[in-house]
Amino acid sequence: MKIALIGYGKMGHMIEEIALERKHEVVLKVNIDNTEDFTRENVGKAEVAIEFTGPDSAFENVRQCLLFGIPVVSGSTGWNDKMEEAREICLSNNGSFLHTSNFSIGVNIFFEINQHLARLMSGHSEYNISLKETHHTEKKDAPSGTAVSLAEQIMAVYPGKNKWVNEPSRKTGEIPIISERIDPAAGTHEVKYSSDVDDIEIIHTAHNRKGFALGAVLAAEFIHDKKGVFEMKDVLAL
Predict the structure, then answer these.
(1) What is the Cα–Cα distance from 187 to 179, expressed in whole angstroms?
(2) Helix, strand or coil, per DSSP, at residue 185
(3) Which among 199, 201, 217 has a CA at the least distance from the CA of 209?
(4) Is 135 a catalytic residue?
(5) In angstroms, rounded to a whole number, what is the distance separating the alpha carbons of residues 112 and 206?
(6) What pLDDT does residue 103 have?
(7) What are phi and psi of 136, to 5 degrees?
(8) Which domain holds residue 87?
């Protein structure tokens, strides 16, 4: 499979390493120093694009790939306000698009556990809910996209919870997310239910970025010959 890497930072380098190990070919690498290479002709040499940039450029990168007719997998976070538009562009152009806040297989299983726990706890209002996420200091967005996804999963099934805030809060309708930036943390996410009598807590800790890179390549392998909008749960058959 021929891959275009849109974004060639630390994650892009690791994705390239995993892709080569899995016998794929990287035919284009675009970063901030060679944006002029991000053309229809160059991207068209690939069968799929993997996009890992930042919240300010992600939507335009995804849009361009879709207009170029190339399936695109995106792991950039912090641009949720444009996500629905990206999906519409994909569908209107008979394209292929997969976005996730976290490609890690472990995190996506963690998402399923989070949903199930939220359903179990939804009838127990005596518990306060809080989230905490810890990442390296180079991470550009706060809270992390994964933490936002966790909070939104809870809000979808937990009565009375309708907003997340990136600060401590005891307001009934809010879910507080505490963000910490500490090197060299790859990423830890904690969901905690606290009451006067006990605490229930689930935690996922990434030891390095390799799990994210592998998941991105698996997503590219899944999407490159398909049409439509997909999620990691489709890739992992969850």
Answers:
(1) 11
(2) coil
(3) 217
(4) yes
(5) 17
(6) 93
(7) -70, 160
(8) 2-103+210-235
2, 29, 82, 139: the active-site residue? 139
Asked if 204 is an active-site residue, the reply is: no
Contact 107, 231 (CB under 8 A): no
Q: What's the length of the chain?
A: 238
Choice among 135, 161, 189, 204 that is catalytic: 135
Query: In sequence order, which residues have a C-beta less than 8 Å from that of residue 202 and are 6 or more positions away?
Result: 110, 113, 114, 117, 190, 191
CATH of the domain at 222: 3.40.50.720
The pTM of the full predicted model, rounded to 2 decimals, is: 0.83
Based on the fold, state whether residues 38 and 65 are members of the same structural domain. yes
94 and 65 inside one domain: yes
Tokens 């905490």 locate to: 132
Nearest of 193, 209, 24, 7 to residue 106 by alpha carbon: 209
Please check whether residue 50 is in contact with residue 5, taking contact to mean a CB–CB distance below 8 angstroms.
yes
Q: How many domains does the chain divide into?
A: 2
- The pLDDT tens digits of the residues spanning 102-152 come to 899 999 999 999 999 999 999 999 999 999 999 999 887 899 989 999 999
